[in-house]
């Protein structure tokens, strides 16, 4: 028996096995979906300008070399950036707001907006195409199938927005937690005779391990001042990048101190005292709300079980006595 005949017989046995046929069809369907997605990505990338794509790649490489690029973003930008570029709103106000929110989340790359919309497009179209290919093979009514497709598209469209808001909240919380330590170190450095720029650079080096996000922002402030930007403009940019209320108050206090010529060390010490008082008041407010928040678990969870344990045996005894009589 030659080799072609053996392969033909094996293929005939494969066709007679229903489970093997289903597995083979599922594998072919998965390969088709993957090939379709790759073709769409290549089509969108081919429609974009190669020169612009090359310039963006060089910008991303320069940022990664300087230490400001995000880890693993180069490959994503190369694939999803051209896709999201065509979905970026033409309204300058909307585009500026998205860019500001991405900066608050720690994404300072120039291609962050394009990457955000590219990920939104991928999460919206990818599951929908997959469901459109899989649902006809499942016995589901057309109404339920349409509902599943719409829900998948809505979830894919809204998921990047939820991620962005969550990233902003988490980063804001981390920056707020690291600010008191940074203020104490700034007070010590200022009273030791260092200027504002040198003090911030020293504090940034000391906070690299405990508070890396705040240290990164302070490092960027030092790089801006060394590049020729004055302290006032660098402080304003620090305020806009972070979007934290406490940092905004610190920048305003420092700018007023520079304007009126008062002592930077005394200004930082007073602001640190005010920040401690503010944190104490917030802690007292949360502690005062605990009793009110515990009321609902007590009423709906603790009290019913307590009543069952306390009043259950007497009620059972009374029921037995009444039944005996």
UniProtKB/TrEMBL annotation:
It is a multi-pass membrane protein. One of its GO terms (cellular component) is plasma membrane. Residues 183-311 form the Type II secretion system protein GspF domain. The chain crosses the membrane at residues 20-47, 117-138, 144-164, 295-323. It comes from the Bacteria. Its main location: membrane. InterPro entries: T2SS_GspF_dom. The keyword Membrane applies. Keywords: Cell membrane, Membrane, Transmembrane, Transmembrane helix. This is Type II secretion system F family protein.
């Amino acid at each position: 028996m030659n080799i072609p005949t053996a392969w033909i017989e094996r293929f005939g046995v494969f066709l007679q096995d229903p489970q093997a046929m289903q597995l083979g069809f599922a594998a072919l369907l998965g390969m088709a979906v993957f090939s379709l997605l790759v073709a769409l990505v290549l089509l969108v990338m081919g429609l974009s300008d190669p020169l612009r794509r090359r310039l963006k790649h060089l910008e991303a490489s320069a940022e990664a070399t300087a230490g400001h690029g995000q880890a693993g973003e180069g490959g994503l930008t190369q694939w999803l950036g051209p896709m999201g570029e065509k979905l970026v709103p033409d309204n300058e106000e909307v585009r500026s707001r998205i860019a500001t929110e991405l900066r608050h989340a720690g994404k300072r790359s120039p291609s962050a907006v394009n990457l955000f919309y590219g990920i939104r497009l991928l999460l919206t179209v990818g599951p929908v195409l997959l469901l459109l290919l899989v649902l006809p093979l499942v016995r589901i009514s057309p109404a339920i199938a349409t509902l599943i497709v719409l829900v998948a598209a809505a979830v894919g469209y809204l998921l990047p927005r939820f991620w962005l808001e969550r990233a902003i909240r988490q980063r804001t919380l981390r920056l707020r937690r690291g600010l008191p330590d940074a203020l104490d170190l700034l007070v010590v450095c200022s009273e030791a005779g260092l200027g504002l720029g040198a003090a911030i650079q020293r504090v940034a080096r000391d906070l690299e391990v405990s508070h890396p996000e705040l240290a990164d922002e302070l490092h960027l402030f030092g790089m801006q001042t060394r590049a020729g930007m004055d302290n006032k403009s660098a402080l304003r940019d620090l305020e806009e990048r972070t979007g934290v209320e406490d940092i905004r108050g610190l920048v305003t206090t420092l700018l007023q101190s520079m304007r009126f010529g008062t002592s930077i060390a005394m200004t930082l010490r007073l602001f640190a005292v005010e920040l401690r008082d503010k944190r104490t008041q917030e802690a007292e407010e949360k502690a005062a709300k605990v009793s009110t928040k515990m009321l609902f678990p007590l009423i709906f969870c603790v009290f019913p079980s307590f009543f069952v344990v306390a009043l259950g045996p007497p009620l059972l005894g009374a029921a037995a006595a009444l039944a005996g009589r």
